[in-house]
Specification:
mainly alpha
């Protein structure tokens, strides 16, 4: 065997090694991306569950939330602060989910689980009034999305609204 043949064998072995390394790297990256998406879903679900837990565990807050949804202007100063803080928390969760969905970290099925409640919540006059006072706190893309959801939402119907079908 001459030096040229040994060199050719070495190049083939090197090329095979590079291909194996690339395949291994691709598998690792795919696994990391899958783990990242799972972590995003868990984190966002936890944030939304926290919001729901606050309302369900605190009757006073639940009543305030319902009052604010229906009539933002009827809130006294303290109620205004509490309701605004509560909606601010909820809309930050929605905004984070919106961007995770846009970045491909939240699949369409999981995204629907946030988009539908956002649309339903946006139907309430109190949310619309609150949004006018806070829209500038959110990113322009999310703000446009919320405005579109407000335009497409129907009559409020989440909490046994008077006259709801």
């Amino acid at each position: 065997m001459n030096w040229e043949a040994l060199g050719a064998i070495g190049e083939i072995a090197g090329a095979i090694g590079v291909i194996i390394s690339l395949v291994y790297l691709a598998v690792q990256i795919r696994g990391d991306a899958s783990a990242k998406r799972a972590a995003v879903v868990h984190e966002q679900s936890e944030a939304y569950r926290s919001f729901l837990q606050m309302i369900s565990a605190n009757g006073e807050l639940g009543g305030l939330y319902l009052k604010g949804l229906r009539d933002f202007e009827s809130l006294d100063d303290t109620e205004h602060v509490r309701f605004s803080s509560h909606l601010g928390f909820l809309f930050r969760v929605f905004e984070e989910n919106f961007f995770q969905w846009k970045e491909g970290n939240l699949d369409p099925d999981h995204w629907h689980g946030y988009e539908a409640p956002l649309t339903d919540t946006a139907a309430y006059p109190g949310v619309r009034a609150w949004w006018k006072t806070r829209a500038h706190w959110y990113s322009a893309p999310f703000g446009e999305f919320v405005e579109a959801k407000m335009d497409e939402s129907g009559r409020p119907a989440l909490y046994r609204e008077p006259g709801a079908d």
